[in-house]
Amino acid sequence: MKTGARLALYGLGLVAAFGTAFVFAGAVIPGSVVAGWTEGTEMNGHDEGHDSGSAASDGAASNAAALKGLALEIDGFVLSPVQAPATVGAPGELSFQIQDAAGTPVTEYTTAHDRELHLIVARSDGSQFRHVHPALDEVTGTWSLPWEWAAAGTYRVFADFTTAGAVAQPLTLTRTVQVAGEFAPVAPQPSQADSVDGFDVSIEGDLVAGSPSEVTITVARAGEPVTTLEPYLGAFGHLVALREGDLAFLHVHAEGGDPEAGETAGPEIVFAAEAPTEGRYLLYLDFQVDGQVHTAEFVLDAAHSESVTGIESGSHSEGH
User: Fold this and answer.
1) Which candidate among 69, 179, 189, 273 keeps its CA 20 to 30 Å from the CA of 124?
2) 139-152 in b/e burial notation, b at 16+ Cβ within 10 A?
3) CATH 3.40.190.10 given to domain 73-179
4) pTM of the predicted model, to two decimals?
């Protein structure tokens, strides 16, 4: 199936591609982690019928059409209006429902990556990123968690979940939330290193629009490689990527291999990446050490390769 095709294509046993969307496949040195790559990518699935190994032939244009996190309704599932504090510094609660086509709150989900729903929040400029897990009121179908905004601006809220039922469907729905206050926009600049909570995290590798490529993230502390990366939500590293401009979304876990209790990895985490278009991408890596979750941020630019440009000009010229 797709997993085999992906792994075969990259020939590394560490990579997989996410159909026609831009892809960041998480993989850590242990092979057990790599085995579950597909599960991670399917969190943002809907790539049925596409073979990631033939991503280049599909072309960047079709890849872009399959991007997730750009709609509040998909296949009858709707993200309700998001209730949250309206101003900066006002403590309160963020809440919402997932509703079906009849407007009935959904109360049953399929657990994916240890949770029934992952909530991603980021300001429109890519700053103020958060990856959290609200609690579900099974009576009302309302998801909620305590919330306070640290900065004003326009925010995108992504609800990433998998439906219940015989045919579980991974979906990513999004809405916009406005937060009043003095707004100081941030212009993301290319960055391949980040320092967070005493960790120095760097990324090596290039993104190529319409073609798979590999990036490697390395974690160090006090100049020493960190080899004690712990499983978090069933993986050693999670990567969320947002495309600058529209915040098209991808959330991928290196889950499937189900790391054993007490197992650790590091200092390198290898990801397969496929950007659908050239442009700037905002990357957020969640990793856990000593029971604490940390988030490192990077900004990479994707450029066209000659081969991809050739394919696009031949098969999708009408779109350019």
Assistant:
1) 273
2) eebbbbeebebebb
3) no
4) 0.76
